[in-house]
């Protein structure tokens, strides 16, 4: 059985044993890591960024992620169609919670170096985040 009552009126989905802490490989990359983030970074992208941020493993460049630091609701969705407008509403049924210390509640992952492109930058096709990270690397 994959779904178990959690004792507080909710349910927990588990397949197999819970994950355990893992040590990095002895030859793991030890250089500087830069992660570009913005409001389009959500779901598993924010989960990855939260763990990298929590482990102080990278410098984040861009804007706050669209996904939350603590996790997200996604997975299986129930889709309803509103009768008058025909608009489809998808309601996620699963919560994913991150194992992080000092979580930032009600926010995404915040960048170390914040970049705000102007409308002209976007129209000109400039990628200010990439320009900045290349300047930092060089």
Task: Note down, in words, how this protein is organized.
The chain is an alpha/beta fold and 138 residues long. The protein is 19% helix and 27% strand. The chain has one domain: Alpha-Beta Complex (2-enoyl-CoA Hydratase, Chain A, domain 1). The strands form three sheets. A three-stranded parallel β-sheet has the order 3-4-7, covered by helices on one side. A hairpin with a 5-residue loop joins β1 (3-5) and β2. The chain is flat and about 55 Å long.
Q: Would you list the SSEs in sequence order as H and E? A: EEEHEEEEHH
Shape: flat
Beta-strand proportion: 25-35%
Number of strands: 7
Any idea of the CATH topology?
2-enoyl-CoA Hydratase, Chain A, domain 1
- In the CATH hierarchy, the architecture is Alpha-Beta Complex
For the record, give the distance between the C-alpha atoms at the N and C termini, rounded to a whole number: 53 Å
Could you name the ranges where pLDDT drops below 50 across 5 or more consecutive residues?
none
Summarize the main sheet.
Answer: 3 strands, parallel
Radius of gyration: 19 Å
Number of helices: 3
Instruction: Work out the count of structural domains.
Output: 1
CATH homologous superfamily label: 2-enoyl-CoA Hydratase, Chain A, domain 1
Helix content: 10-25%
Structural class by SSE content: alpha/beta
Major sheet: order of its strands? 3-4-7
Mean pLDDT: 89
Could you name the CATH class? Alpha Beta
């Amino acid at each position: 059985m994959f779904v178990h009552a959690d004792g507080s009126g909710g349910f927990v989905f588990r397949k197999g044993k819970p994950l355990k802490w893992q040590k990095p490989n002895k030859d793991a990359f030890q250089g500087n890591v830069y992660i570009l983030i913005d409001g389009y970074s959500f779901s598993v992208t924010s989960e990855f960024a939260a763990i990298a941020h929590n482990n102080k493993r990278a410098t984040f460049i861009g804007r706050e992620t669209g996904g939350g630091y603590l996790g997200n609701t996604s997975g299986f969705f129930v889709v309803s169609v509103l009768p008058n407008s025909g608009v489809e509403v998808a309601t996620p049924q699963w919560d994913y919670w991150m194992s992080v210390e000092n979580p930032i509640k009600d926010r995404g992952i915040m960048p170390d170096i914040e970049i705000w492109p102007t409308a002209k930058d976007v129209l000109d096709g400039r990628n200010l985040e990439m320009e900045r990270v290349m300047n930092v690397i060089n």
